[in-house]
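Annotated sample (chain length 90).
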Amino acid sequence: MEDLTSLKDEELYENWHRGGNADALLVLLERWAIRLPYFYYKKGVRREDAEDFTQDVLTKIMTVGSFNGRGKFASWVYQIAKNQWLARLS
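Output written by the structure step:
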């Protein structure tokens, strides 16, 4: 596996989504599996629920495919995370 860890999230997504590089997807998902729970902890979400939310968001990253590259990848992911959280509240 080539060293993909130095690439930005946007580059990893592009390598996976357009180029079919599964290793790029793995690096991207590993990064966000660490970052996303903290997003939910700040909102007062319990650990177990934060893990569930994180899995939901990671699945959406892999399946939605609507990141257009015009903004930051992080903004796109956090919007998905926020929408997941708000949907569960209602």
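Annotation: The mean pLDDT is 92.
Annotation: The radius of gyration is 13 Å.
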